[in-house]
């Protein structure tokens, strides 16, 4: 019986103190790249502009919805720049147009020179 009280007390303490910790969620880079994997064909050569209900556009929307804080958006930017550099196959002209094709508004312009730390709020 005393162990049940201890567990209850610990859970209560966790619930009460969690908002005070001000923990910001982080989006794993792997999640971002998986969400956008179906966009690679378009990002390479612009052929077959994705429709708004395509898996590509759903991935774009998922990434935008997951990046709620400034920290999340900056980390997502860094992740995408790193992935684009590693694969060397992204045409930034198509990358910049992708959110518009998918009907997703983002508050910055996608380019190879974007500074993820200072340009993204």
Automatic annotation (TrEMBL):
Any one GO MF term held by the record is: lipid binding
Signal peptide span: 1-25
The record's annotation in Gene3D superfamilies points to:
Plant lipid-transfer and hydrophobic proteins (1.10.110.10)
Under CDD domains, the record lists: nsLTP1
Pfam annotation, one family = Tryp_alpha_amyl
Keywords attached to this entry: Disulfide bond, Lipid-binding, Signal, Transport
Its domain of life reads Eukaryota
- What InterPro entries does the database record attribute to this sequence? Bifun_inhib/LTP/seed_sf, Bifunc_inhib/LTP/seed_store, Plant_nsLTP
A biological-process GO annotation: lipid transport
The record's annotation in SMART domains points to: AAI (SM00499)
Q: Which residues form the Bifunctional inhibitor/plant lipid transfer protein/seed storage helical domain?
A: 29-116
Transmembrane stretches, by residue range?
Answer: none
Q: Please give the SUPFAM superfamilies that the UniProt record associates with this protein.
A: Bifunctional inhibitor/lipid-transfer protein/seed storage 2S albumin
Q: What does this protein do?
A: Plant non-specific lipid-transfer proteins transfer phospholipids as well as galactolipids across membranes. May play a role in wax or cutin deposition in the cell walls of expanding epidermal cells and certain secretory tissues.
Family named by the database record: Belongs to the plant LTP family.
Query: By what name is this protein known?
Result: Non-specific lipid-transfer protein
């Amino acid at each position: 019986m005393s162990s049940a009280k201890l567990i209850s007390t610990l859970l209560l303490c966790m619930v009460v103190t969690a908002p005070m910790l001000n923990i910001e969620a982080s989006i794993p880079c792997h999640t971002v790249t998986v969400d956008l994997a179906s966009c690679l064909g378009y990002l390479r050569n612009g052929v077959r502009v994705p429709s708004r209900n395509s898996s590509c556009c759903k991935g774009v929307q998922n990434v935008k919805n997951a990046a709620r804080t400034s920290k999340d958006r900056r980390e997502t930017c860094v992740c995408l720049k790193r992935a684009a550099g590693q694969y060397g196959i992204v045409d930034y002209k198509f990358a910049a147009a992708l959110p518009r094709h998918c009907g997703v508004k983002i508050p910055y312009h996608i380019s190879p020179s974007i500074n993820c730390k200072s340009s993204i709020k």
